[in-house]
Specification:
This protein is mainly α. It has helices spanning 3-15, 22-35, 40-52. It holds the Pfam family DUF6104.
Length: 59
């Protein structure tokens, strides 16, 4: 199992019943990047991917 899978499974187990806003997620991602600046580009790509996920112009 990949570390990402384990991390996502832990997230689901610990916080799966919570409802959060995208603003909350964006704040947590910013805190993560502030703590681990080497992940700025992957987080930016992930956020951009999420933002454009359902945009038909980005196919």
């Amino acid at each position: 199992m990949y570390f990402t899978d384990r991390g996502l499974e832990e997230l689901e187990k610990r916080r799966g019943d919570e409802e959060v806003t995208l603003a909350w997620v964006a704040e947590r991602l910013q805190e993560f990047v502030d703590t681990f600046p080497e992940f700025e580009i992957p987080m930016e790509r992930f956020a951009t991917w999420l933002a454009r996920l359902d945009d038909p112009d980005d196919d």
